[in-house]
Amino acid sequence: IDVGYHGGSIDGIVAGEAYVHNNTLTDTGHAVDDKRYGIAAIRAGGGNSVTAYNSLRACRHQGIVGGGSKISNEIYSHGVEPKSIMIAASDGDHVAGNRLSGCGCTAIAGTGGSRICDNTIYLQPAASGDAATGYSDITGIEVDMRGHAGSDTVCTGNTVVLDADNSCRMARGVWLHDMDSASSINIHDNHI
C-alpha cells in the first residue's frame, strides 16, 4: 500500500494479528481528537504480529502501535501532540533495526520485557512545544517497568542523537522509570 491521508482521527492501517510489511504511508493531518486512543499510522494487534519494512513518511501522533515485532521500519514524526510516540512496544516485543526521526516526541516507548536493539534515532524539539508550557520534551527510548517484575528487558546497540535547544525542557537518551520491583535489566553498548 502507498497512501497519503489527512483529516481528524484517521488511522492509516488497522490490522488484527498480522504481518504488515512494505507499505508507504504519509499522514499530513494535524488533529488528534482522542489523545488516549491516539492516531496511529499502523495499528497491529496481537503478540504474534510483525510490522516490518514500512516507510512512514509522516505521522502526527503514533507511528506503530500494538503487540509483536517491529523490524526495519523507517518513521518520521512531526509530533503534533507532546506525547507523540513513533513505536509503542509491549511486554515481550522485539524492536530492532528501525530508523526513526522526528520532533517533540518519544521515539520508542516500551514496557518491561521489551527487547529494543540496534535502532537509530534522531530527535529535536517541536517548534511549538507543549501548548501549556511552551517546552518540548524529547526521549529516545522510554521503558516503563511498572508491573513487570522479573521481566527480561534488553536495550542494546541503539544510537540516539538528541538535537536539543533552549525550547527543550528535558532530553533523555534512554529513560527507565518505575523501577522499584524491576529485575533482569540489560542495558549496554548504546551510543547517545
Tell me the layout of helices and strands.
Elements: E1 2-5, E2 13-15, E3 19-21, E4 24-27, E5 40-44, E6 50-52, E7 55-59, E8 62-65, E9 69-71, E10 74-77, E11 84-88, E12 94-96, E13 99-103, E14 105-111, E15 115-117, E16 120-124, E17 138-144, E18 153-156, E19 159-162, E20 171-177, E21 185-188
Parallel strand pairs: 1-4, 2-5, 3-6, 4-7, 5-8, 6-9, 7-10, 8-11, 9-12, 10-13, 11-14, 12-15, 13-16, 14-17, 15-18, 16-19, 17-20, 18-21
Please tell me about this protein's structure.
This protein is an all-beta fold and 192 residues long. Helix content is 0%, strand content 48%. It has no helices and 21 strands. The strands form 3 sheets. Strands 1-4-7-10-13-16-19 form a 7-stranded parallel sheet, with no helix packed on it. Strands 2-5-8-11-14-17-20 form a 7-stranded parallel sheet, with no helix packed on it. It is globular. The model has no long low-confidence stretch (mean pLDDT 86).
